[in-house]
Design goal:
InterPro entries: Phage_TLS_TfmB (IPR014915). This is DUF1799 domain-containing protein. With 86 residues, the chain is mainly α. The chain has one domain. The chain has four helices and two strands. The protein has a two-stranded antiparallel ribbon with strand order 1-2. Helix 2 packs across helix 4.
Length: 86
């Protein structure tokens, strides 16, 4: 997914306590790993690099990663449905 894909989606509410994680996830739009042509998940090395660039304290990384993994799983479901149907 990239920024254009997010722009095409319907609007959804994001709670303030999740905003930073959602923005970090959006920045990962070009960091999807593929295997045999299929999207399989985010490149966590790139996620870690973004955490460092954004100067997020390392004590908070686990919390961010948990939130990002929830969004990643939901995104993978959508990607699978778009490519293969329900």
């Amino acid at each position: 997914m990239n920024e254009a894909d997010f722009a095409k989606q319907s609007v959804c509410e994001v709670w303030a306590e999740h905003w930073d994680a959602v923005m970090l996830f959006a920045e990962c739009g070009t960091q999807w790993r593929r295997d045999m042509g299929y999207v399989v998940g985010l490149d966590y090395t790139a996620v870690k690099t973004l955490l460092e660039i954004r100067q997020i304290p390392s004590e908070q990384w686990a919390e961010y990663l948990e939130k990002i993994q929830i969004m990643e799983a939901a995104a993978l479901d959508v990607i699978w449905e778009r490519n293969h149907g329900k």
